[in-house]
Amino acid sequence: MTIRSLLVANRGEIAVRIVKAAKAMGLRTVQVHSAADADMLAVKLADEAVDIGPPSAAKSYLNIECVVAAAKEAGVDAIHPGYGFLSENAAFAQAITDAGLIFIGPSAEAISLLGDKVKAREVAAAAGVPTVPGSDGLIADIEAARAVTARTGFPVMIKAAAGGGGRGIRIAASMEEFERQFPLASAEAKAAFGDGGLYIEKVIERARHVEVQILGDGVDAIHLFERECSLQRRRQKVWEEAPSCSLPADVRDALCASAVALAKSVGYKGAGTVEYLYDEDAGAFYFIEVNTRIQVEHPVTEMITGVDLVQEMIRIAGGGKLSLRQEDIRLSGHAIECRINAEDPARNFVPGPGTISSLSVPEGEGIRFDTMLYEGYTVPPFYDSLLGKLIVHSTDRAACMTRLEQALKDLKIGGLATTVPLHLALCRDDSVQTGAVHTRFLEPWLEESFQPDAGLEEVA
Ligand code: ADP
Ligand code: ADP
Ligand code: MG
């Protein structure tokens, strides 16, 4: 069935991104919103808007019944879930299918299989993809953990099978610490994700986070190369690049091939990301999880491949076969994305909503700013702090960094504190410039090297 109309079950910059992609394909667009979001940009851009409930996400964006009812009422063919919220909720995908509508993403079965991080490890291993040394399946009790850690050594990570968004992960450096953490981790996972299941992974020290973008049509699957997202704070990505500057060609080939093998083994349909840790010294990569949705950092892949991933998702969901063959995907140049959050770098990144008093956005070749901001818009306090993503593309990494620094200086967001000064400081750091970073780089760097107030005059 061809999709002629689409409802966007999300908010913020990704809702804007999806509305624009759908409009570019000539589709009728319906945007849902909470009572706090009536004046958001995606509502203004969409053909129609539907109020689905109070500001609390639990009562609006996470309310399956309300979202599906809005879609039926509006008479749309399909629903795009964006990222976060219900995007990786198998019950949501199933409810949409049961209502006779199209969920733009993989099947409910694929979401529940790959969304369970323990089952996903099994799927990866079965497809011949190396996983992080750790437990086979869930850890039932301390005795089982003792056997696993005797094999892996310490430190280990205690991870929630249902975790996501950087939450549900603890580190234990010894068995004593493990015994203390284990019940807390289980209770926390139960409260946060409704599932207390835990598993163990060895900590891969000084690893890089690399991830492969995949597209599948249920039969065939291809990759669109990798992204590197090693600059993280609290296990949340802050800055992302494509391609990774650390991978030798043979490792890149093996990494990307492994993601395709995994996707094909489950008949993956839609866009997805296979995440790995890369141990540069050992030249080894290890699977960590699959995200069965569009990812925040998808634009860097679009910049280096020229493929519009959101449009591809819509096409595939409408029953289309992959229009791209692997040999059509060419890697061109280098792209970097900076997440611009409404957080104050000088006050330990405390989120600070507010009204946008002025906005000046950099333009020009190789510059893209994905955002929901406009002058006069009031950022509500109820949701994620992401305001937009500055993405820069150029011929190589060095040229990209130069272009990025200028674009960051030219991005002026008045009315609230943002993470622009952090990104400017990162641009000027020697280790970032040479790409000598890993997932534990940023947090100590913030303590030791970052002067949040330096350079503030440039972003005022
Ligand atoms: P990406 O890997 O695409 O960068 P993130 O981990 O940054 O994704 O998550 C994207 C958004 O989705 C964030 O707003 C994050 O808080 C939210 N998110 C991701 N997974 C979950 C989850 N399991 N539960 C709740 N929120 C989540
Ligand atoms: P989430 O589902 O919250 O995205 P992930 O399993 O993808 O969780 O891990 C998030 C981040 O935590 C990784 O990008 C990495 O920085 C860190 N991490 C996860 N597993 C390990 C590990 N075994 N060793 C070292 N770091 C890890
Ligand atoms: Mg992850």
Automatic annotation (TrEMBL):
Query: In what residue span(s) does the Biotin carboxylation domain sit?
Result: 2-447
Question: Is DNA-binding given among the entry's keywords?
Answer: no
The function of this protein is: This protein is a component of the acetyl coenzyme A carboxylase complex; first, biotin carboxylase catalyzes the carboxylation of the carrier protein and then the transcarboxylase transfers the carboxyl group to form malonyl-CoA.
User: Is this entry keyworded Nucleotide-binding?
Assistant: yes
Give the UniProt keywords, A-Z: ATP-binding, Biotin, Ligase, Nucleotide-binding
User: What name has this protein been given in UniProt?
Assistant: biotin carboxylase
Gene Ontology terms for molecular function: ATP binding; biotin carboxylase activity; metal ion binding
Q: Where is the ATP-grasp domain?
A: 121-318
The record's annotation in PROSITE patterns points to: ATP_GRASP, BC, CPSASE_1, CPSASE_2
Which reaction(s) are listed as its catalytic activity?
A: N(6)-biotinyl-L-lysyl-[protein] + hydrogencarbonate + ATP = N(6)-carboxybiotinyl-L-lysyl-[protein] + ADP + phosphate + H(+)
